[in-house]
Design goal:
Elements (H helix, E strand, L loop, with lengths): L4 H22 L5 H21 L4 H27 L5 H30 L1
Helix pairs in contact: 1-2, 1-4, 2-3, 3-4
Length: 119
């Protein structure tokens, strides 16, 4: 059975986001930005799981496109947390690198699925 890289990476990212949220709440007393990141960062993997059960290729593309938007939003919240000094450079870089890798995977999946529909 082959591994689903985007599924695994998005789940790992969600775990890191949950842990970051716990840190931001307890150590930094930050409640607003962390909640936004928690919502967007954990929804990516859930949407990818949803896409696995898509009824059609168009439905699959739609769900993956929403996951793409959510990971992009997560990148925004990470950048904002960095610029407001809630995350240091190392923390930001590690999470941002993961998020960029996920968005690239999702984008590639959407493009190849669209190409397969047109063929």
């Amino acid at each position: 059975m082959s591994k689903n890289i985007v599924k695994d990476k998005s789940f790992g990212f969600a775990i890191r986001i949950v842990r970051l949220n716990q840190f931001l709440l307890t150590e930094k007393k930050e409640y607003v930005l962390s909640k936004q990141l928690l919502r967007s960062g954990t929804s990516v993997g859930a949407l990818i799981r949803e896409a696995e059960q898509a009824e059609t290729k168009k439905d699959f593309i739609h769900k993956m496109a929403i996951a793409q938007k959510e990971i992009n939003e997560s990148i925004y919240w990470l950048e904002l947390l960095k610029k407001t000094d809630y995350l240091n450079q190392s923390e930001f870089k590690s999470l941002n690198t993961d998020a960029i890798e996920i968005i690239k995977l999702i984008t590639s999946i959407i493009k190849s699925t669209k190409a397969n529909i047109n063929n």
